[in-house]
Amino acid sequence: MQTVSTLVELRLAVDDLRKSGTIALVPTMGALHEGHLTLMREARARADHVVASIFVNPTQFGPNEDLDAYPRRMAEDAALLEAEGVALLWAPTVDAMYPDGFATTISVSGVSEGLCGASRPGHFAGVATVVCKLFNQVRPDHALFGEKDWQQLAVIRAMARDLDLTLPHVSNIHGVTTVREADGLAMSSRNAYLSPDQRTAAVTLPRAMRAAIEDIEAGDDVAGALMRLHAALGEAGFGPIDYVTLADASSLVPLAQAPDAPARLLVAARIGGTRLIDNMPVSPVKGEETQ
Ligand code: PAF
User: Could you tell me the mean pLDDT of each successive run of 10 residues in the chain, 291 residues long?
Assistant: First the structure.
């Protein structure tokens, strides 16, 4: 695996790879876990060469967020990527990504606005801008992202569609199913912040979400199911809870009634100081049969 940290080296290395086949890009912020490694494996299945990026993007962190504390483990991450058969690691410095005078931001309205967009102002503009840059820098045939960041995936797809990106074309931006710990907690680099007690309590998040989905799919009142989920999180020590929302899976418009099209249950809540997010699919609920 080759590691590059300047744009000039990146362009040469990408041109070289392209001569012998297609390229799949997996953008990451490092602190890699099994969820990221699953993305690398899926990327290998889709293209001849995998390019991974590791860049802790400052513009997607708010002023009081965890940019400084975000885990950085470059040597360990590089070894993991090498073992997965990644061909090229793009690890730019902040100055290489945002040189002096950098002045452009991509803002995607609509899907960016609710949920994490409401509780993390500016976050999705930071994500859309850096991902657009990564796409332009690598010009991959495919790009892969975890479905754990469901709203991020919707924002990136909207950005690619609206800006007529061809490499990757929006249909080659792939979401990969969330990888979970044995007890159901979604894997996240931020799980490393949890104390043993917080980690034990954190399992309430996927469990209470599953219970709410069962209730909604069985025809229970949506508001009641969401209130019970909210209460279960509070009892387990979560707080503040940013949102507990049932939304249309594509538009992310919140739903007050049982869904009649694919939907998603999305939650963001803090335990201790750590903000966890998760989302799960909710099947459309069939209307009552008419006699
Ligand atoms: O999901 C992430 O790790 C980041 O938001 C991404 C897509 C690499 C952009 O910085």
Answer: 98 98 98 98 98 98 95 98 98 97 98 97 98 98 98 98 98 98 97 97 98 97 98 98 98 97 98 97 76 42
Query: Span 2-176: which CATH code?
Result: 3.40.50.620
Active site residue 36: yes
pTM of the model: 0.96
The residue to mutate among 152, 187, 188, having the most atoms of ligand 1 within 8 angstroms of its beta carbon, is 152
In the DSSP assignment, the letter for residue 237 is T
| Beta carbons within 10 angstroms of residue 100's beta carbon | 5
The separation between the first and the last C-alpha atoms of the chain, rounded to the nearest angstrom, is 64
Cis previous bond, 240, omega within 30: yes
Could you tell me the residue ranges of all domains in the chain? 2-176, 189-282
Catalytically annotated residue among 33, 36, 123, 169? 36
Q: Are strands 238-248 and 173-176 parallel, antiparallel or unpaired?
A: unpaired
Planar angle of CA 97, 19, 28, nearest 5 degrees: 35
Residue nearest atom 3 of ligand 1, based on CA coordinates = 28
Q: Could you tell me whether strands 238-248 and 263-271 are parallel, antiparallel, or unpaired per DSSP bridges? A: antiparallel
Integer Cα distance of 202 and 220 in angstroms: 25
**Residue of 254, 50, 70 lying closest to 151 (CA atoms):** 254
CATH 1.10.730.10 at 189-282, yes or no: no
